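Practice record 12: protein with zinc ion.
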Amino acid sequence: MKVPKSVANLIEVFEALPGIGPKTAARLTYYLLHAPEELTHKLSDAAHDLKTKTKICSVCQNITEEDPCDICSEESRDKSIICIVEDPLDVWSVEKSQSFNGLYHVLHGVIAPLDNIGPEELKISELLTRLKISSSKATEVKEIILATNPSMEGEATAMYIQKLMKPTGIRITRIARGIPIGAELEYADEVTVRRALEGRRDY
Ligand SMILES: [Zn+2]
């Protein structure tokens, strides 16, 4: 007996997601097959909204529904300090730690020569533009925190930005290694993220 095409299709979609193998993909599909129709509608609507309702903040490049995003438009935030992170999940992770009140800049990746990802694939030119605009206003940036992950690629990216930023004279710091080597910021607990931020030093 052949699996019906619509069932096989959904199994295939699930399997294409990270961390989901063939068994889990099949289990999820058969679960949905027996679940109330309302759930399958919710799932497809949520997936659809994810793409149609979100955009990238023109200031910090984070994922948002409003441009500028909530963080960039929050009056009480310290605009003189920018925390540079690899992806949007890192922003949420640092926010959860409640230890940072500045702004962010999301790179959307790291420099990875083996995967053919160079600096031009990241939101680095947007960062430079942002700094140029800010230097002419009262909201001058005084510090940049490099909060890329302590992986090889994260370190290389931090180093690249550090060299690029040096001529600006802006203070550049790197988060301390409260984050274990090989671990990722998005999976770190609040205390670890807070320690890492508090222990940052000039870089
Ligand atoms: Zn923003």
